[in-house]
Amino acid sequence: MKIILLVFFFIMFSFIFLKFYKYKKAFKKDKSIKFNKSNLYNWMNLTKKERFDLSKKESNSYLKKRKTLLEEIRKEYKIISKND
């Protein structure tokens, strides 16, 4: 019985440790700067890699927003076409 509990705790500990290790980037301080006229100097103070990463993240979020909007439009169109 004790061996089973030890194995269970070991598996749970390793699972939690691996999850934390995998998502440790989520705990890092996020520099969320959007590029616009008012914060141009803040944007230019970032390194080239940081600017690239931020622009890539913004483009991905914009793409996700467009996809969800397109899905909503398709759902509404299906509902409207079924009613007619």
UniProtKB/TrEMBL annotation:
Q: Which residues cross the membrane?
A: 6-23
Q: Which of UniProt's keywords are assigned here? A: Membrane, Transmembrane, Transmembrane helix
Superkingdom is Bacteria
Q: What is this protein called?
A: Possible Hantavirus glycoprotein G2
